[in-house]
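Weekly modeling sync, notes
Attendees: S.R. (lead), two postdocs, one rotation student

Agenda item 3: backlog of single-chain predictions. S.R. asked that every request posted to the team notebook include the full sequence so nobody has to chase files. The rotation student volunteered to paste the first one in as an example of the format we agreed on. Action items at the bottom.

Example entry:
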Amino acid sequence: SSKAGLQFPVSRIKRYLRKGKYATRVGAGAPVYLAAILEYLTAEILELAGNAATDNKKTRIIPRHIQLAVRNDEELNKLFKNVTIAQGGVLPNIHSVLIPKGSAAKEEKEKTEKVKSPAEKKAKKAPKAVQQSQDY
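Predicted structure, as returned to the notebook:
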């Protein structure tokens, strides 16, 4: 492990490969390569889960953060498509058909009213004679 610059145990992975009967012979480079792959995947998931935890203002990674990290990343989602993460929950998603049309129209109307400039608001309240004097 130290020669390859890895944190994952190469000798343990080699032992598991031999005892698992995956093949009759195991080469010297196979456990090193497998350890490197496992270490990379672990680091990638932990980095994304850490980002999800900080987004939720937490310092500790919980299964929910791992779920959010995996499902929001396209490649990891493809790798973990048949995996269920315990206590992970689901991605927040509301189908567009379920959103009421009336509330969206009201929100847009409120936004356009907020955008109006102060001069337009004064012109709306002032009488017509005052409006004409403001134009000059």
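Discussion: group reviewed the output briefly. The helical segments are 10-19, 30-55, 63-72, 74-79, 101-115, 118-125, 128-135.
Action items: rotation student to repeat for the remaining queue; S.R. to check formatting next week.
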